[in-house]
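Hi F.,

I've been meaning to write this up properly since the lab meeting, where we talked about keeping a consistent format for the predictions we share between groups. The idea is simple: the sequence comes first, exactly as it goes in, then the C-alpha cells exactly as they come out, then a line or two of notes. No screenshots and no reformatting. I'm using this chain as the first example so we have something concrete to point to.
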Amino acid sequence: MSGRYLTLGRSGILVPERIKASYEGAAEGRRSSNWDAPDTGVNSLIMPALRNLRSRSRSAVRNDPYAANVIDKRVSNLIGTGITPHPRLLDKAIRKVMQELWEDWVDEADADQLTDFYGLQALVARTVEQSGECFIRLRPRRLEDGYAVPLQLQCLSPEFVPHDKFEMTRFGNVIRAGIEFNAMGRRVAYWCYRNHPSDKSSLNVGYNQLVRIPAEQMLHVFEPLEPGQLRGVPRLAPVLKRLRSLDNFDDAVLFRQEVANLFAGFVRKPSPDGPPQLDPLTGAPVKYDRDGFTPMVGLEPGTMQELLPGEQVEFSDPPDAGNNYPDFMRQQLMAAAGSGLPYELMTGDMQGVNDRAIRVVLTEFRRRLEQLQFQVYVHQLCRPVRKAWLDMAVLAGALDLPDYAQRRREYQRTRWVPQGWAYIHPVQDVQSRSMEIAAGFASRSEVCLRNGTDAEVVDEENAADIARAKALGLNYSSLPAVEDDPDESGDKGKK
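Output, unedited:
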C-alpha cells in the first residue's frame, strides 16, 4: 500500500503521489531535473548578485538603445516635470505663504546645485530604475548661507552604502547590508562611505572610510518586491540576459550585411598573356589594389564601364537578413517588454495597433506607474522631504507658525500631485470630464488635480483674464461667462 501511494521526494520526505501530481509545477521528473529554484530568503539571493546586476544594468543602458529607451520612457512618465505638493490647510493665507516659500526653496534644494527639487525627483527615479535603489541625505545648512530654508538634499548612488556589510555593533544593534537596525527591527542608521568607492576621479580620498548617518538624515528609495527585502534590484534584472542576446544577434546580422555588401560585383577575365592590360578609357595601366591581383573598379551613378576582351561581370548577390528576422526580433522584443515598458513604447512599432488598442496599453502602463508614484516616490521621498522642510522652515523662522508644535500633523498634511497624463483623444477626453463634473461624479478641483494643476490657481487666472478683457473692451468666446453684478448695473442705471 505504501509503495503505491507514497514516493520518496528529492528532499528525502515521503510525498503522497496524488498530492504530488496535483501541482505539475512541483513535479520532479526528468523534465524538471535541471530546474534550479532555490527557496532561500530574498536577501540571501539578492546580495551576492547585486554588484553584477547593477554593473550590467548600467552597461546595458549605456550601450543598448532598447535598454536606454526603457529607462528614459519610464522616468519621463513616472516623474515628468515633477510631483508637486498641494497643502491641505483650510487657512488660505497660510497656504499661500507656504507655497511661495516652497517655490523659493525648490530652486535651492540640490546640494550639488545642478537642478531643482523636481529634477532631483527625476534623478532619483533614474537611479532607482537603473540601479535598483537610491539614497538621499538631508543636509542642514547654516542660517547665514542665505537659503530660503536651510536644508538641501544630496543624492547618493547605491554603492555609498555597502551591501556586503554585516556585523553586530557594541550597543547590540545589527548591521545588515549596510543598514543598522535596533532590537525592534527599526532602521536607526546607515553606514555610508565618504566618497564613491569606485570613483577614481575622487583620488580615493575617504573611499574606504565609513560614516554612521542617523536614519532621520537619510532616505532610502526602492521598490520592495518581497517582505523583509533590504536592498533594491535594477528594473532590467529579469531581462538583462535576453537583451544582451538580442543585441548580439542583431549586431551579428548587421555585421554580416556590412561584409556582404562590400562586394558589388566580380570581373572574370582570361589568363593574362602578352603585354600589360591598359585602361580602355585612359590608356593607363590597370590599377591593382594592394594584394596585387584585384582591379579597382569604381561605381558611380550613370557609369558605363567598358570591359576588355574576354572579361565578364558577375554582380554579387549577398544574403539578406532572412525572412524570419523581423518576426524574430519582434517576438524577442515583446518578451523583453518584461522590463515594464510596453512593446509599442519600447520600439516605436505601431504596426497593426489602432487607437483603442493603444489606449488599453497606455491605461495599464499608467496604472502601474501610478502605483509606483504614490507607494514608492511619494511615500519614501516626497513626504519625508516635506516634513523635514517644514520642521526646518519653522526652526529657522522662515515660517511664522506659533502653534506648529501642537498642530504639526495638521500643517504637514499635503496632497502630492504628479504631472497630468496627456490626452489620447483631446476632444473626447475633455467632453467626458466635463460630463463627469456636470453629473456630479467629480469636482472641478479633482479634475484639475488629475491634470497636475490647482483649481484655485485656475480660477484666479480665469478671473484675471476676464477682468483684463473687460477693461480692454475685448470679447473672447473662450472666456467663461460671468453675469454682471445686479447692484452695479442698478447703480449705473440711476446715474
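Notes:
The chain has three domains: 2-32, 43-263+318-416, 265-316.
DSSP finds 15 helices and 14 strands in the chain.

If this format works for you, I'll send the rest the same way.

G.
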